[in-house]
């Protein structure tokens, strides 16, 4: 008796309900009749007491709630929404494929910097001779050709340089550090920003070397110096620590002129002083033992 | 004699290495002065170069700071617009939305306009992290206003068209990127959830259901776009919260469906007290 009444009530109320989704009905019915016993007592009371007046009220409630707008209107808008998202999808896919191309060149850059790095490791094994630097120097040309490829890809979409910057940023920092190290080994001087741009072929107006990347690259290079000093002393170049210390002190002083934010560059700069201290220690060790005058 | 020869000898012995010594001293002096000159020059060229980098970094940081400030102001004022929209009810719809739209216009003219001249050229992408939160919030406020007014989604082209008159024609106009638009849209669903709950408690079930459909549409469309976005992790997180919001709306709609058909008719009844007293464990 009760369940019959209830289902009758439901059919009745749903015939007035403007819900366009008829599938919802069985689910609601099941849930309604099972867990909400305390609530489900309500309609029985109501339906017994106020059956006649409810139909009127329900229908007025329905007609008052026309804020939802017409169905035709919402259909039209949903198709325009779809069109917009379709457009976004093609846009994002295009930028995704551009990114993939950039990433593949970045991977080439990465592997060529690795080659340079590997051949540059030989400077730790013997006294510095121009021959040691021949091989890494010859590999720089390859690196430059990859940067040319990158420049060509990015030239297709001007202004988007920094959108994809993250994809080849760390590779560039490594490249700068290697070039600066080679340059320093050759001349004993710091590779300056325009020179680094020149060497990488990044000196065009729309495609240049980011100054922060350059500075981070220089920091990376300075990480290499303590090891170089230690190994040079081991193979008998006792004057090396003095030269490196001089250069490094100047470099550190120059870096102190920069107002840095709390970012990666700041972190690298903060680490620089430990490398500097290491070089100082090596210089001290060599000097205190009088090795400086003994050498050569 | 002996003395003199001895002296001479000593002098000879002393003088013998002397020129050599002098020579070496002179040599090292010359060498070191050359070296010092070279070191000085490299030192000063290094200093000059770093002075340039310092200037570059100072300018960049100042600019970034200005952009961040503008972004914060955009966020703050867009939030106010969103709160204004939430004051909506059946009676004051036009009035509330009118004020919200006016405030939204102010956000664009006073704060977004500040971004235009800072984000010329490559800076638009370079400083994206600095301004993106504000722009997303603006997108959220603008789309929310539009939805409440017409029930439709404000498209990116419409927003960008509204931003065109902000700057003089000599500058590149600021155009919101599709990424920031989509991220803002993902945030919009949280506000729509609040709106839907508010409408339900106001008795506007139909409106809440409409919001529900709208959020479902957005969620479905965004699901397809997530893998193509630049910073996927951020968007994935937003998708999770979005689903949460959507489910909250759906559950609210469900509750009203289940129980609303029961208590709605009673809202106008003459004697609700007697009905409530008969059912002590009712959930309202």
UniProtKB/TrEMBL annotation, chain A:
Gene3D superfamilies on file: Translin, domain 1, Translin, domain 2
Cellular compartment(s): Cytoplasm; Nucleus
Region Disordered, residue ranges: 48-68
Keyword Lyase: no
Keyword DNA-binding listed: yes
Start-end of Polar residues biased regions: 49-68
Family: Belongs to the translin family.
Record-given protein name: Translin
Biological source species: Cucumis sativus (Cucumber)
TrEMBL record, chain B:
Alphabetically ordered keywords of this record: Coiled coil, Cytoplasm, Nucleus
GO cellular component: cytoplasm; nucleus
Entry GO MF terms: RNA binding; RNA endonuclease activity; sequence-specific DNA binding
Top-level taxon of the source organism: Eukaryota
Keyword Nucleotidyltransferase: no
Major subcellular site: cytoplasm
Coiled coil spans: 46-73
Family: Belongs to the translin family.
Protein name per Swiss-Prot or TrEMBL: Translin-associated protein X
Species this protein is from: Cucumis sativus (Cucumber)
């Amino acid at each position: 008796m009760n369940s019959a009444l209830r289902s009758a009530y439901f059919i009745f109320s749903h015939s007035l309900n403007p819900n366009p989704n008829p599938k919802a009905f069985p689910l609601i019915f099941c849930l309604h009749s099972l867990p909400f016993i305390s609530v489900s007592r309500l309609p029985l009371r109501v339906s017994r007491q106020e059956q006649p007046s409810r139909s009127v009220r329900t229908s007025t409630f329905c007609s008052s709630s026309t804020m939802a707008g017409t169905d035709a209107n919402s259909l039209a808008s949903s198709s325009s929404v779809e069109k917009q998202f379709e457009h976004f999808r093609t846009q994002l896919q295009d930028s995704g494929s551009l990114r993939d191309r950039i990433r593949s060149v970045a991977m080439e850059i990465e592997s060529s910097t690795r080659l340079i790095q590997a051949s540059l490791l030989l400077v730790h094994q013997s006294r510095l001779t121009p021959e040691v630097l021949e091989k890494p120097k010859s590999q720089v040309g390859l690196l430059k050709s990859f940067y040319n490829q990158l420049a060509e890809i990015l030239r297709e979409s001007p202004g988007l340089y920094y959108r994809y910057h993250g994809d080849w940023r760390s590779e560039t920092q490594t490249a700068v550090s290697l070039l600066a190290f080679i340059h320093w080994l050759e001349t004993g001087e710091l590779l300056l920003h325009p020179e680094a741009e020149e060497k990488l072929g990044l000196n065009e107006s729309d495609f240049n070397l980011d100054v922060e990347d350059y500075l981070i690259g220089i920091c990376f290079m300075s990480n290499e110096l303590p090891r170089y000093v230690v190994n040079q002393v081991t193979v008998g170049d006792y004057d090396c620590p003095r030269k490196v210390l001089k250069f490094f002190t100047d470099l550190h002083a120059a870096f102190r002129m920069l107002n840095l934010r709390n970012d990666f560059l700041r972190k690298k700069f903060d680490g620089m002083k430990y490398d500097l201290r290491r070089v100082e220690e090596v210089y001290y060790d060599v000097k205190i033992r009088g090795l400086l005058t003994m050498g050569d | 004699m002996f003395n003199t020869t001895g002296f001479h000898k000593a002098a000879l012995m002393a003088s013998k290495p002397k020129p050599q010594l002098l020579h070496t001293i002179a040599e090292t002096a010359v060498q070191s002065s050359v070296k010092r000159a070279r070191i000085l020059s490299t030192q000063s060229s290094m200093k000059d170069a770093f002075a340039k980098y310092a200037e570059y970094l100072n300018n960049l940081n100042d600019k970034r700071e200005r952009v961040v400030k503008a972004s914060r102001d955009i966020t703050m004022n867009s939030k106010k617009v969103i709160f204004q929209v939430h004051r909506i009810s059946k009676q004051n719809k036009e009035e509330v939305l009118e004020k919200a739209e006016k405030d939204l216009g102010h956000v664009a003219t006073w704060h977004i306009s500040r971004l235009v001249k800072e984000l010329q050229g490559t800076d638009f992408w370079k400083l994206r992290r600095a301004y993106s939160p504000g722009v997303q919030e603006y997108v959220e406020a603008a789309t929310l206003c539009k939805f409440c007014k017409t029930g439709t989604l404000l498209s990116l082209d419409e927003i960008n068209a509204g931003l065109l008159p902000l700057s003089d024609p000599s500058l590149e106009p600021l155009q919101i990127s599709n990424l920031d638009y989509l991220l803002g849209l993902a945030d919009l669903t949280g506000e729509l959830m609040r709106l839907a709950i508010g409408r339900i408690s106001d008795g506007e079930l139909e409106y809440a259901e409409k919001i529900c459909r709208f959020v479902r549409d957005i969620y479905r469309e965004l699901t397809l776009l997530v893998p193509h976005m630049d910073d996927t992790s951020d968007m994935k997180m937003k998708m999770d919260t979005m689903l949460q919001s959507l489910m909250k709306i759906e559950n609210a709609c469900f509750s009203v469906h289940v129980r609303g058909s029961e208590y709605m008719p009673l809202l106008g009844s003459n004697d609700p007290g007697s009905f409530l007293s008969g059912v002590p464990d009712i959930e309202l």
